[in-house]
Each structure stands twice: as C-alpha cells, then as structure tokens.
Write a structure and sequence with these properties.
Number of strands: 10
Mean pLDDT: 95
Bound molecules: adenosine-5'-diphosphate, magnesium ion
Distance between the termini: 32 Å
Strand order of the largest sheet: 6-7-8-3-9-10
Low-confidence stretches: none
Order of helices and strands: EEEHEEHEHHHHEHEHEEHH
Length: 250
C-alpha cells in the first residue's frame, strides 16, 4: 500500500524551479529517507506533503499529490485536517514555552478534547510512543524548556503523535543532537513505522542506511533514484547515485 502517489510534481519559488517532474509512490508503514546534498529540494518536497509549502509566498505547484484517495491540492481539501493526518517534526526542537503536559495536550485541546482523564491518557500514550514517558512522568507540570535537546526533540515527536497522525514527516530531526540522543530517535523511528508512515530527510547517509527501508536520492531538484535502501546504496542504477553514495560529492 502506498501512503502517497505523486505524479509530475513541479514546484517554483518565484522564477526558481526547485522540483522537476517528481514521480514517486511512497509506501505506507515504512521508513523512507530523502537524501542528497544541501539545496536539492528535500525539505521542499517534504513540505509539499502536508501543504506547509503553502505558507511560503510566491510558491507555485503543479502536478498531482495523492494521499490515499485524497488529492491534497484539490480546492476542497481541508488543510488543517490534512496537517493533523500528516504531522511534522522539524530540524530544531521547538517546544512551546509551557509545561510538558500542555505541549502534548495542545493539539488535542485545539481539536476540542477537554476532559482531564481523556487528555491524561493521550499525554501518557504519546509520551510512551515517543519513548519519553519514563524520563518525564514525575515532572509533567514543569516547563518543557527545561528538557535536554534530545528530550525536547522526542517531546516534539510526542506532540505530533498526540493528534493521531498517519504520517510523520521529519526534516533532519537529529542533526542538532548528540550521538546518544540521535540513537534514541533512530530506534524510535524503527518502532514508529509499525503504526505510522515515516518520511525523513537526512544528509547523514549512515543514518539512512541504519533507519530507512526505502531511499530517494534528490539532486538539484530532480529525483534521481528511488529504491529499497539496500539497493540504492549497494546496487544503484544511476551513475549520479553511485557517485553520491560512494562519497564522491555531497
Ligand atoms: P534541501 O532541503 O535539499 O537542502 P531545500 O528544499 O531547502 O533543499 O531548497 C531547494 C532549493 O529551493 C534551494 O535552491 C533553495 O535555495 C530554494 N528555496 C528553499 N526555500 C525557499 C524559499 N522559501 N524561497 C525561495 N527559495 C527557496
Ligand atoms: Mg533541507
């Protein structure tokens, strides 16, 4: 089953043609890594998937992006609902300046959940889902800003999980973290794919090899190659992919 089916996606920032005719089917309940040098369109592509790109002025998008049977760029699409189903975690953890509990309860409250026992259950479940519960269960009312960087990033994952998404988009979500926190997030991604489709941008090729099932190689706005991670790294079909994964540029 595919989470996304994308046909001839093109994107321009003003005159700058940032994505060229991208065609890709992204499998559900798998981890797909988007790799490639800086400035090649990985973040741009990721933000197309939950229409975060709409927030950028002067963007023009053509092509078809199907999420299940929903054409997400159709005029009738409810963008708030889409962003609930397709959650996002950014490069730098961005906890709200409020308690750990309130960070997680924020989204559910926006969606009208008010009962304390219901919110308590969501907070616990989300923090467990992000492998953070044991570390914070005794200080839920304390500020999230007091957590370490790695904990803050897992908090942001928990906050994304709290609204029960189907897809988690992660944009270099470990690049600001130490190796131990990075390992914790990588392990977590491996667990999350049982319940979610994970699409992650990483410029760390070892991370893509460790964590992902599929990998897509972007270069200067082109999707050069998309394959099972093992194939892309060990049996690339395109010379540009071979050069990149063997470290000849990047
Ligand atoms: P990557 O994530 O692979 O580093 P990006 O998707 O961020 O690449 O950027 C792809 C290209 O689009 C780059 O040339 C970048 O300068 C350009 N770009 C990204 N965001 C914007 C923006 N908001 N306005 C104009 N150009 C942008
Ligand atoms: Mg980027």
């Amino acid at each position: 089953m595919n989470a996304f089916e994308i046909e001839n996606l093109n994107l321009w920032y003003g005159e700058h043609h940032a994505l060229h005719d991208i065609c890709i089917n992204i499998p559900a309940n798998q981890v797909t890594a988007l790799i490639g040098p800086s400035g090649c369109g990985k973040s741009t592509f990721l933000k197309v998937l939950n229409r975060m790109q709409d927030l950028v002025e002067g963007v023009r998008i053509e092509g078809k992006v199907m999420f299940g049977d929903q054409d997400i760029y159709a005029p009738k699409t409810d963008v708030d609902q889409l962003r609930t189903r397709v959650g996002m975690v950014f490069q730098k953890a961005n906890p709200f300046p409020m308690s750990i509990y309130d960070n997680i309860a924020y989204g559910p409250r926006v969606h009208g959940i008010k009962k304390k026992d219901e919110l308590d259950a969501i907070v616990e479940e989300s923090l467990k889902g992000a492998a953070l519960w044991d570390e914070v269960k005794d200080r839920l009312k304390r500020s999230a800003l007091g957590l370490s960087g790695g904990q803050q990033q897992r908090l942001c994952i928990a906050r994304a999980l709290a609204v029960k998404p189907e897809v988690l988009l992660m944009d270099e979500s470990t690049s600001a973290l130490d190796p131990i926190s990075t390992g914790q997030i990588e392990d977590l991604v491996g667990v999350l794919k049982r319940d979610y489709t994970v699409i992650m941008v990483t410029h760390n090729m070892q991370q893509a090899v460790r964590v992902s099932d599929y990998a897509a190689f972007f270069l200067l706005g082109d999707l050069v190659e998309f394959a099972k991670t093992d194939d892309l790294f060990n049996r690339p079909l395109d010379k540009r992919t071979a050069d990149y994964v063997s470290g000849r540029f990047g």
